Task: inverse folding
């Protein structure tokens, strides 16, 4: 078995690209080898700022020999055909092929033997191609070669290539190839400053050792370990603690080949700046770590990682870095002092110039919506509506401060500092910081009611906005972090035990988005609830309560232009058109109804809920079972109805002004596909939990078995009698008259249990509902034990099937048992 | 002026000594040493010796000091690091030589940066000039955590692929001088290398200018006039490009490009005056870029641009 060593030595590779590049190199080379039948035992790739290296061990010295028998033309075929066959088999005369007799006749057969190619040869062929097509996020051309089109591209100029191959016991050979004038060899170079001389290498082991001697630590993870250990020790020795930062550590390890950790200092007066801002400054600009004192506050020190062992022990390097850090902190101090001179409230006007999203308007408009929503949400989450509104108004004001302009990652946090400095109510200050939270599955969830109201409003506004313009996440693409926003809603609701009526709030925000579409010559109309006419969105301005009472959110909205610009009607604030809309207005386009939008959004939230619960260890089939529709469900495996199709979405409107109205898509109003109050995420989760516990009991397991038996029988019989054949009510008289005792027992228990389960679900008592169903178990067991469903007497048979159907329906009060797996 | 005055040209004790050292260093390596371009530009890259000469197949090695104006960066002389007028030392080598990094490090050594004592690093910094329709890949060069130079391999200029690619080095002279002189405030830099009465500082030379130009840039520049100048420069650039075309050739690429430079600077002034909104800003940048592209296209039809 032989090993491969490959090193691509270049000018400095951006730190953020190194790890990925090493991984790409490993995958591309090993995939290409495997594709050519060359299996290997192991492969590992490495990166430093100046090199990518790859070690592949346990490769065969050559590929497998291939023997193939190829059948040619029939004996007696025209000579030209026979000659052609011989040639194609790589042979020279007919004497080299044999004749094989088959029931179909005699045929020429050639034995083709292809010896396996030496691996070195294969490598020399695949490596140049991989290097030429390497998937750098950004690559460049350089030097005299770049006169020609098609010259080699690399992340930065590539200087040399080491490529050796051979068995462990022998002198490896150089895999000979050339890429744009760079010939492979066995020479590399050490550290740029400390050991720049050429180094001859043989295989991976001596390569790593030689580099180490030449002040290069090849493995990025080892460089990280060294930095972390040295930084911790250095901090500890002086009575401090390192503020760890994995992202920074990864980056710094990609900036040095030989890490040397040093400590610098800055003036204590800078500690008046918020610690997070100090850290952001030092981190972003200087790529240095900060330290904590024993009491948890920031120390006036920083840790830097240099790339050389300096001849003065690092004194000059520390002094130089210290000067830059001080200059940066002077800037930060200036930002901090300048920002404090303007109140957050006085910054709101400036938000008008910050575009949140081209189609969704400015941050100012966003704040208007979030404030209105937070105020409405406040009572539901136990917050003071006035405080929630105020917090929402101030929540984005720090976006126009100097500090956040410089360090966007400090948004929210700086707002809290500035708000606290102005002496606003503490819960408002907290909400300003916390309304961005939670930012992911492990981020802290706000608990202060005001913060919860604003955080929910912020996320709902984002979700509704992007759903309205049909910008949803696809595959791995989620540029607006909508999955995170949905998870945020879920965590805020569940972890605070809240039950907001999400649909109502979605209607509110959507109405505000629609308001935005109302311009000087464009009007937005919605159906009224009585179906007699249309209400202009402008009516919302004057009386939002009446507006919400009168509008039919299950119907689409229309963007219209008045036919007569001078029509007085257009100037009215509250506009109700009872005659045909078309009479006064030209309909420019139709847009999705609030209800449809909500259903689409809810389906997305449910998907995220499944992921969330699964991460918490819940069974994902139970979630499906609970979320399944209440009305007769399709069997497992046949997709569930997923909301209604969007009837044209907002961008079509915004962009399509002047185009003829789009044909109205069929709108499926009426019954929603979701279980009742599917937007009550808390109840969904409680139900999943209760169902899980129930199924773990013997009663639960047996009832599930009984359900399945009933469902299977019904399925088989429905095939004969047609779907819905057993939907009718159970004929109790018939049972009383002709039924067996077990049948009577089931009928009675079932009626009672179904009623009890329904009542318990209505009272949100899922344990109770499960208990009610558990009562069914002995009756179900006895029924299947003694009763023959397919009785001879047709009416009895149908009635028994109806009874089973009633059993199936009863379980659906709690969940769709048909979706429970395992 | 008989006796030699008490001055030193040592690059670590004299700003002009630093400049002279760099000029000598690059002159000895075959560069044409040019003088600053006689127009207001935002960066050394705008000099036609870089922007235009980076285009086309001809070999070109040059170095020069370029005063650079960034009206928005003025701080009335009150900030120790920020200036609305400062010096860049610019080196352009086309095609980029294989040892460009080594040459750069040697130039640092020449101005007194001991590479055994200081931590020099090449940190990713992709360069892009939206106004010039240009981009390149390279680094900012750090010395003990301070950015002292920009190092770029031009990939595209004026919307055209560079073939061959030029390497560009830009030294921020004030920063570098502050570093080697060990000074915290730019105005304290020793300009002439003199001591005692003979010493002239950067502040002696430029502080008053920084104060006056900050007033001009932020408060008093006549915006109506500037809007007019922008339009005039744009129109003149187009007119010259129009009139200069003669068959395959172009005969006035350089004068046309001057107007592009002028438009760019006027835009910077208007921007500093705060009279250009966010959305307008983008459209002004685009307008300058269109001029730069057209000038680049014209240059490629000249002898300097490679037409025989």
Result:
């Amino acid at each position: 078995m032989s090993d491969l060593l490959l090193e691509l030595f270049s000018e400095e590779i951006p730190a953020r690209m190194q790890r990925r590049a090493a991984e790409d190199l490993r995958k591309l080379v090993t995939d290409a080898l495997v594709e050519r039948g060359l299996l290997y035992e192991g492969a590992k790739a490495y990166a430093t700022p100046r090199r990518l290296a790859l070690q592949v061990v346990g490769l065969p010295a050559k590929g497998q020999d291939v023997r193939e028998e190829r059948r040619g033309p029939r004996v007696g075929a025209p000579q030209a055909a026979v000659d052609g066959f011989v040639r194609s088999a790589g042979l020279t005369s007919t004497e080299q092929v044999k004749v094989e007799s088959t029931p179909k006749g005699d045929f020429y057969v050639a034995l083709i033997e292809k010896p396996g190619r030496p691996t070195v040869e294969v490598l020399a062929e695949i490596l140049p191609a991989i290097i030429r097509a390497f998937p750098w996020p950004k690559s460049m051309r350089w030097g005299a070669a770049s006169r020609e089109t098609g010259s080699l591209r690399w992340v930065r100029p590539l200087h040399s290539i080491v490529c050796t191959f051979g068995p462990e016991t022998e002198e490896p050979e150089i895999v000979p190839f050339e890429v744009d004038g760079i010939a492979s060899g066995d020479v590399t170079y050490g550290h740029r400053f400390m050991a720049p001389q050429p180094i001859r290498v043989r295989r991976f082991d001596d390569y790593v050792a030689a580099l180490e001697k030449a002040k290069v630590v090849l493995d990025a993870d080892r460089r990280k370990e060294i930095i972390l250990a040295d930084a911790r020790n250095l901090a500890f020795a002086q009575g401090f603690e390192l503020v760890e930062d994995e992202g920074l550590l990864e980056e710094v390890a990609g900036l040095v080949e030989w890490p040397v950790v040093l400590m610098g200092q800055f003036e204590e007066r800078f500690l008046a700046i918020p610690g997070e801002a100090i850290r952001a400054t030092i981190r972003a600009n200087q790529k240095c770590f900060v330290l904590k004192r024993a009491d948890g506050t920031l120390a006036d020190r920083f840790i830097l990682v240099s790339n050389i062992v300096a001849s003065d022990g690092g004194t000059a390097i520390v002094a130089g870095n210290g000067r830059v850090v001080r200059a940066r902190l002077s800037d930060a101090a200036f930002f901090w002092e300048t920002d404090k001179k303007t109140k957050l409230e006085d910054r709101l006007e400036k938000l008008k110039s910050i575009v949140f999203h081209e189609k969704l308007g400015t941050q100012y408009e966003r704040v208007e919506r979030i404030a209105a929503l937070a105020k409405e949400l406040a009572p539901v989450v136990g917050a003071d509506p006035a405080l929630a509104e105020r917090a929402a108004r101030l929540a984005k004001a720090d976006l126009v401060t100097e500090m956040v302009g410089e360090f966007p990652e400090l948004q929210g946090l700086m707002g809290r500092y500035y708000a606290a400095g102005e002496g606003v109510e503490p819960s408002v200050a907290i909400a300003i910081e916390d309304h961005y939270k939670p930012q992911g599955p492990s981020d802290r969830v706000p608990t202060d009611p005001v913060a919860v109201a604003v955080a929910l409003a912020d996320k709902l506004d984002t979700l509704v906005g992007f759903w309205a313009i049909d910008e949803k996440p696809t595959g791995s693409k989620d540029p607006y972090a909508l999955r995170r926003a949905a998870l945020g809603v879920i965590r805020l609701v569940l972890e605070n035990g809240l039950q907001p009526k999400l649909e109502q709030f979605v209607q509110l925000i959507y109405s505000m988005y629609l308001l935005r579409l109302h311009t000087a010559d464009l009007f937005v109309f919605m159906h009224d609830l009585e179906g007699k006419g249309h209400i202009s969105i402008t009516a919302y301005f004057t009386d939002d309560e009446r507006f919400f009472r009168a509008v039919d959110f299950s119907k689409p909205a229309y963007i219209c232009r008045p036919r007569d610009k001078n029509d007085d009607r257009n100037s009215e604030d509250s506009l109700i058109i009872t005659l045909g809309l078309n009479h006064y207005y030209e309909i420019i386009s139709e847009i999705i109804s609030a209800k449809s939008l909500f259903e689409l959004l809810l389906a997305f939230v449910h998907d995220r809920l499944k992921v969330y619960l699964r991460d918490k260890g819940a069974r994902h089939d139970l979630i499906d079972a609970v979320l399944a529709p209440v009305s007769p469900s399709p069997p497992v495996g046949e997709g569930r109805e997923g909301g209604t199709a969007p009837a044209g979405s907002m961008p079509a409107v915004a962009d399509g002004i002047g185009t003829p109205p789009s044909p109205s898509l069929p709108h499926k109003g009426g019954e929603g596909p979701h279980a009742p109050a599917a937007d009550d995420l808390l109840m969904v989760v409680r139900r999943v939990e209760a169902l899980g516990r129930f199924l773990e009991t013997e009663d639960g397991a047996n009832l599930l078995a009984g359900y399945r038996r009933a469902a299977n029988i019904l399925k088989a019989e429905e095939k004969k009698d047609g779907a819905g054949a057993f939907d009718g009510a159970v004929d109790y008289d018939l049972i009383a008259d002709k039924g067996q005792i077990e049948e009577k027992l089931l009928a009675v228990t079932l009626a009672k249990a179904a009623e009890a389960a329904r009542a318990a679900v209505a009272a949100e008592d899922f344990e109770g509902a499960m208990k009610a169903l558990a009562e069914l178990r002995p009756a179900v067991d006895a029924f299947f034990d003694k009763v023959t469903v397919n009785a001879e007497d047709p009416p009895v048979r149908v009635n028994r099937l109806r009874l089973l159907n009633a059993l199936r329906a009863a379980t659906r009060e709690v969940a769709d048992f048909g979706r429970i797996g395992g | 002026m008989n006796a030699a005055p008490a001055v030193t040209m040592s690059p670590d004790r004299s700003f002009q000594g630093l400049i002279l050292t760099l000029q000598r260093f690059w002159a000895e390596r075959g560069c044409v040493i040019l003088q600053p371009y006689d127009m207001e530009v935002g960066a050394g890259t705008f000099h036609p010796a870089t922007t235009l000469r980076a285009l086309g197949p001809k070999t070109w090695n040059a170095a020069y000091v370029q005063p650079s104006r960034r009206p928005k960066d003025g701080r009335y002389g009150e900030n120790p690091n920020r200036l609305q007028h400062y010096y860049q030392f610019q080196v352009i080598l086309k095609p980029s030589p294989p040892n460009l990094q080594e040459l750069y490090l040697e130039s640092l050594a020449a101005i007194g940066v001991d590479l055994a004592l200081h931590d020099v690093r090449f940190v990713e910094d992709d360069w892009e000039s939206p106004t010039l329709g240009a981009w390149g890949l390279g680094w900012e060069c750090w010395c003990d955590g301070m950015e002292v130079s920009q190092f770029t391999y031009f990939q595209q200029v004026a919307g055209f692929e560079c073939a061959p690619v030029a390497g560009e080095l830009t030294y921020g002279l004030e920063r570098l001088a502050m570093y080697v002189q060990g000074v915290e405030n730019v105005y304290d830099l020793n300009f002439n290398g003199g001591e005692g009465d003979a010493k002239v500082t950067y502040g002696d030379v430029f502080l008053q200018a920084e104060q006056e130009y900050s007033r001009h840039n932020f408060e008093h520049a006549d915006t109506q006039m500037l809007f007019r100048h922008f339009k005039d420069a744009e129109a003149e650039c187009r007119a010259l490009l129009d009139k200069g075309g003669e068959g395959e050739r172009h005969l006035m690429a350089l004068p046309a490009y001057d107007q592009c430079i002028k438009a760019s600077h006027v835009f910077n002034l208007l921007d500093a005056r705060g009279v250009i909104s966010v959305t307008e800003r983008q459209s002004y940048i685009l307008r300058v870029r269109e001029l730069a592209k057209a000038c680049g296209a014209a240059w490629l039809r000249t002898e300097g641009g490679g037409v025989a």
